[in-house]
Each structure stands twice: as structure tokens, then as C-alpha cells.
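Entry type: protein chain
Record version: 2
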Amino acid sequence: MDSIEVASIKPGQELTLTFGNRDAVLTKLEASRHFKVDSWFPEEQEIYILDDVIQEDELLHYAFEPIENYAALLQEESKSFGVKRRIQDFLGRTLDTLEMEEEEEEEDEESEE
């Protein structure tokens, strides 16, 4: 899978993203662009994916709070460095691989029909 639109990911679906030698497991939550992240931070975190498409060989931007005007904030933050930034990008690493697991409930419902 080379890319996926963030809007097409359903709540409960999991994505495994590989950045170099580290994986981040994202689980889609109910709110738009809202995900739970396991195995990237020391503790489980909730983030908001800012890009419209998650794509291999590209940076993936996120924030810890919803962002209204992503393009304007990205331009503004291009002048700053370090902890004051609201937009993050998995340590500047591009996405190596993207795997998406389907929801088990949907698979079970389809096989029952």
C-alpha cells in the first residue's frame, strides 16, 4: 500500500507506520483526523493527523490538538525550531511502509451474510 486518504480510515481501524527502524501503531478514533498512537511515545498518546493523505516516502505531520488552518501554521512554523512547534513530523523521518488492518467486525459481518 503506497498511500491512504485519512478521511477513508474508519474508527477502530489500525495502521502500522514504519519510520526507519521504528514502528508507530495508529488506531483511528471517532473525531476527524484523531488517532491513538502506541509504541512511538513512552506512553500512549492521542494525535491529530494534519495531512490529507498518508503516503510512503513522505513526511507525516501531526499535532497534539486539532489545527484549523494547517497550511498557514506550517508556513509560520517553518521559521521556528524545537519544542515551541505545534506541528510534529515523527522526528523528520519519511514514512517507509504503511500497513492497514481491516476492522474485524466488518469481516465477521460480511462472512455471516
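Comment: The chain has a mean pLDDT of 84.
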